[in-house]
């Protein structure tokens, strides 16, 4: 999701990278045994685990690590708000226990990769706090802690070392932070050393089954593959996963500011409104990465308002702010990701509920084991085809929010927040125009090619955003994030 600031710098703190390598685009038809689509944390780590397999390649519509992984806060953490009590109520105690085990295993796995491969990615062990920012949250948070303690996790009751107001806070000491893009660049190098090709700026727009292989169509070339791994964050197809009725999209607002002292901890509130922060040091500066205002995209408001709230919550001074950006993730109704086999020789991983550093690595291990025919104890737990009671009980909320975002945009509500944006009809087509500061008009088709929702203009990041399933287009309508595979540029 490359979003540019006015001075030309990409916004995410992790995007301060120098890419000296040549990007290789797909320039001819290919025949491979295994194709990994998507080069975020999921796709790249899966390719890493499969690096000794024959005839494997990775393909990405953009460059390595330019999707959701680019804008993450990159905490590697198993103390995830109140996820375990939520899983107990949506599923049961044993499943929550297994989810905890899977997160601890994923942390071990990522630690092993980074340490054994000597990947320089600012990987550090720091304590992680979860705190109640409302009085009514104290008892639910205590229940979460009691679950963790029963499962032999050493959780301490400890005050937050910061100015953030909390009613109670707990901490664990064996959690980590890193720079996810340095990690992915490290994995890229290992893949290259193993002669695995990573194609960038090469989008897959359609996949068809033909006998015992898949034909994956790019914009110019096609790839025939025996096995396909879909690691694209939100898949573009509906069937057989039916993601729009099992999930919703959550958007959050992130501000990076310069600070004088490295806090050496991470923290997150146990429930909404989410307050979360961590620190990052590069050679020159120390940064605080603050996040808040998370919401279902169906209930999106003016982005400037949300960024203003983050500033207020964390008491951030304008002069210290380096960049601000949004990010989205897929939230599942039972708070468990969808990982595994979709159909014969096709695999998928998504729905990480904003915990994709652990779950992306977990997914990579499960899928690579499936591909190599190795038994994995988590295969059944995260089966992507599962349908359970939580899908039914959450259905009214999911349907309401999906209908709201679809009809809301169609009825032209919440769209004219900014007077530089106009929505109108021309020759029967719905169009939208943004007039930039220099008076130049940027016109796009006001219809997301994925499922037809109308778009919202994001004045802060200068993108056209789809509130239904989080497709994103740059100011001139070039698609920068799926599930849409097509642009909305208007050349009329
Ligand atoms: C605000 C926020 C903060 C977060 N913080 C944390 C955190 O601290 N810790 C944590 O564990 N998790 C966090 N997460 C979650 C985590 O960032 C994501 O779950 C994770 O990055 C998803 O990784 P991915 O590889 O599945 O997707 P992505 O990183 O989006 O990778 C998908 C790739 O697929 C490519 N692609 C898409 N469509 C196509 C196509 N048609 N053809 C070819 N390529 C395609 C894209 O270009 C992209 O590179 C956070 C999420 C949010 C929203």
Summarize the structure in words.
The chain folds into 3 domains: 180 residues, FAD/NAD(P)-binding domain (3-Layer(bba) Sandwich), CATH 3.50.50.60; 146 residues, D-Amino Acid Oxidase, subunit A, domain 2 (D-Amino Acid Oxidase, Chain A, domain 2); 87 residues, 3-layer Sandwich (Rieske Iron-sulfur Protein). The two termini are 26 Å apart. It is built from 10 helices and 24 strands. By secondary structure, it is an alpha+beta fold. α1 runs parallel beside α5, α1 packs parallel to α8 and α3 packs across α8. Helices cover 25% and strands 30% of the residues.
Write the CATH fold name of the largest domain. FAD/NAD(P)-binding domain
Hey, roughly how much beta strand do the residues contain? 25-35%
Whole-angstrom Rg: 22 Å
Mean of the pLDDT scores?
Answer: 92
Number of helices: 10
Uncertain segments: 1-10
CATH superfamily of the largest domain: FAD/NAD(P)-binding domain
Features:
alpha+beta, globular, FAD/NAD(P)-binding domain, D-Amino Acid Oxidase, Chain A, domain 2, nine-stranded mixed sheet, 10 helices, binds flavin-adenine dinucleotide, Rieske Iron-sulfur Protein, 492 residues
Which helices and strands appear, and what pairs or packs with what?
Layout (H helix, E strand, L loop, with lengths): L29 E8 L3 H9 L6 E4 L15 E2 L6 H8 L2 H24 L7 E9 L5 H13 L5 E2 L10 E10 L2 H14 L3 E3 L4 E7 L2 E6 L3 E9 L12 H4 E13 L6 E4 L5 E7 L4 E11 L6 H12 L6 E12 L5 E6 L2 E5 L5 H17 L16 H5 L1 H16 L10 E6 L2 E7 L5 E5 L10 E3 L4 E3 L6 E3 L4 E3 L11
Parallel strand pairs: 1-2, 1-10, 2-7, 4-12, 10-17
Antiparallel strand pairs: 3-6, 4-6, 5-6, 8-9, 9-10, 11-14, 11-15, 12-13, 13-14, 16-17, 18-19, 19-20, 21-22, 22-23, 23-24
Helix pairs in contact: 1-5, 1-8, 2-3, 3-8
The site of flavin-adenine dinucleotide (FAD) has 39 residues, from helix 1, strand 11, strand 15 and helix 8.
